Amino acid sequence: MEYVLRTTAVKKEYGHYKALNGLSMNVPKGSIYGFVGKNGAGKTTLIRLVCGLQRPTDGEIEIYGVNYNDKASLKARRRMGAVVETPSIYLDMTAEDNLKEQCRILGIPSFDAIADILQLVGLADTGKKKARNFSLGMRQRLGIAVALVGSPDFLILDEPINGLDPQGIVEMRELLLYLNKECGITVLVSSHILDELSKIATHFGFIDGGKIVKEISAAQLENSCRKRMEITVTDTKILSRVLDELHIEYAINSDAEAEIFGEINVTELTLRLHENHCDVRSLRERNESLEAFYINLVGGESHA
Amino acid sequence: MHKLLIANFSRIKKNKLFWCLCGVMALASLVMILNALSRPNTTVDNAIAAFVIPIELAVAVFVSIFLGTEYGDGTIRNKLIIGHTRQRIYLANLTAALTCTAGLFASYMLPVLLIGFPGLGLPSGQTVKIIAVGFVTLMAYCALFTMISTIYANKAGATAVNLVLAFVLLVAGIFLTSYLLQPEYIPAYGIGNELEYVHNPHYVAGARRILLQILTNILPGGQATQFLMNIIGPLWTLPLYSAGICVACTTVGMIVFGKKDIK
Question: Average pLDDT for residues A130-149, to the nearest whole number?
Fold first, then answer.
């Protein structure tokens, strides 16, 4: 698998405080990587390091396979765009002027792409309105527009939906999906709103205490989180045979316990088990959400 | 670095504060000239002498706000994220600030050229030299303010620090120059009619005088005060001290900015 970003045992210390404590993560090319963690877990610190705003105390960061300390990493950064915490925009400039300024910083002589970018983020009609008069959602979208100047392959967004109204959240989700699917941009997005993240992310990285505690694809997560029944019976061998006959997916945990995945007809199952002289002692439905998965992972003291 | 310079100059072109300060400089110069014109036996030299002081204050305000905006609005991150090195960013900012200082200087000198010279006559050779040396002093001020504004990420804080520093340097300059300009002997008025001269106890002599003189020459405030009050040492040494300040401030600024954690 090709990775856009890889970090290995990254540490960042501020005095005696360890913000990152040996963090390793892998962002696959073409993915939307949901970066999940509670306040103070180290999400923004890592993003700052990846963006070159701060230097790691120890560890390796590779962007497009180029090491952080290598001079070639400066060229690799040219393919990146990011919004770290607050949008980086000149408040005394219009949306268009902000994008022109970013074009100059990048050395792009033509401003032709600006209209398309403004259209894409829904700011085409802002005219001469200064960014200081924009709403939070508009500023957030302008920040993303600035990050999109220069057609980056990798977009890093730190809490992009924080403070947005429901309409703004939907628009942001659609924008990110469009950028990923239609423009092929790899997106690293950190967010507290797990439900929203679960709608767009193809991969997840869970951070706690300055470390990645779990990296998982959306498909794997779906398997972990999907609806299931926990069943306790007198004989799991009989249960196994019956479930095979009914073509139901399951997992045997012990001689008496098993998990059954997907929707099942409970009456039919219990009758079939009864016919085979197997008693059902208990049956519990489990439907784990991303939030529950996350809380189980980090020990239940989440602020997310 | 040219990309950063183009971006900086584009911002300056649209910067209302810069053009406003240019106007204020021209107005300040005009007031000085009109004041000189209204008094008999006044030369253009008198109207020019204090030029460093208003320009240094304008530079302190402009540099703090122009560079502070990069931190305040967070736009410095856009430059770093896409791979511009900190050294290039610093040098591009310094170049922009120096150019603006030259612009403010030109704004002050424009009324002098257009009204001062025709109305009050041409300046003396010494005044022309002082203008040239003063220009380098302003560059030293600019390098100092750039260093502080780049190291101190708070826009309002950097503006306050730079303004206070500008005043402190000026007051220190006045104090040091006054101290050094003390005469060695002062008249002592006794009972008799004869005027006697006695040694001035406030006169600084020997190694202490040399040290104070060097300090006065090094400090941009000391240089500015000397232009106004009297030149104490050889004039040609002052640009060398200013150049030294420029190099020292830029080196320190680049090293600290290079290691700075940006949020």
Answer: 92
Give the count of alpha carbons within 13 A of A282, CB side only. 9
Closest CB to B6 among A75, A87, A104: A104
pLDDT over 50 at A304, yes or no: no
**Banded pLDDT at A302 (limits 50, 70, 90):** very low
Domain assignment present for B228:
no
Average pLDDT of B221-243?
A: 86
Q: Which residues of B touch A93 (CB under 8 A)?
A: 14
CB contact under 8 A, A53 and B262: yes
Contact: B77, A89; criterion CB under 8 Å: no
Chain A residues 83-102 with CB within 8 Å of chain B = 84-93, 97, 100-102
Residue in A closest to B74 by C-alpha: A88
The helix/strand/coil state of A213 is strand
- Within 8 A of A85 by CB-CB distance, chain B residues are 74, 263
**Poorest-pLDDT segment among A59-73, A266-280, B37-51, B97-111:** B37-51
A101 → closest Cβ in B11, B84, B262: B11
Q: For the ranges A65-74, A273-282, B7-16, which has the lowest average pLDDT?
A: A65-74
Chain-chain contact of B85 with A146 (C-beta, under 8 angstroms): no
Three-class DSSP category at A75: helix
- Report whether CATH 3.30.70.100 matches the domain A227-286: yes
Residue B136 within any structural domain of the chain: yes
Smallest CA-to-CA distance from A5 within A48, A53, A68 is with A68
> Could you tell me which CATH class the domain A3-217 is placed in?
alpha beta
Question: Are the beta carbons of B241 and B217 closer than 8 angstroms?
Answer: yes
Residue B45 has pLDDT above 90, yes or no: no
Helix or strand run (H / E) with residue B49:
none
Residue of B nearest to A68 (CA): B83
Structural domain boundaries enclosing B102: 2-169+234-259
Assigned domain for B238 exists: yes
> Which residue, B131, B119, B109, B134, is CA-closest to B43?
B119
CA B181/CA B169 separation, integer angstroms: 18
Side chain identity, residue A113? A
Domain coordinates in residue numbering, chain A: 3-217, 227-286
Contact call for B84 and A87, based on CB within 8 A: no
What is the 8-class DSSP label of residue A41?
A: S
CB pairs under 8 A between A and B: 85
Judge whether B175 lies within some domain.
no
Whether B50 has its CB under 8 Å from any CB of chain A: the answer is no
Tally of domains within chain B: 1
pLDDT at B192: 64
Judged by a CB distance cut-off of 8 A, whether residue B77 touches chain A is: yes
